[in-house]
Design a protein that fits this description.
Layout lengths: L1 H69 L1
Length: 71
């Protein structure tokens, strides 16, 4: 009987330990998810900036071509 009580207490301690570890891992995971969202947002902004730069480059090169044609 005492060994069963000891076994139960030991199992409860293990469960408590694993639950605490699980809470810690979930917090780390939430932090990583938030960082991932930030990085994805930065990527979208960089892609938009890249498209803007290409458009500006194209507009400038067309403007230069027109200037040379008018000369």
């Amino acid at each position: 009987m005492q060994s069963e009580i000891d076994m139960t207490n030991s199992l409860r301690q293990c469960i408590a330990k694993f639950e605490a570890e699980n809470v810690k891992i979930k917090a780390e995971n939430d932090k990583i998810i938030a960082e991932n969202v930030e990085l994805k947002t930065k990527i979208v902004k960089l892609k938009d900036k890249q498209i803007q730069n290409k458009l500006i480059k194209n507009l400038l090169s067309r403007g230069l071509e027109r200037d040379h044609q008018n000369c």
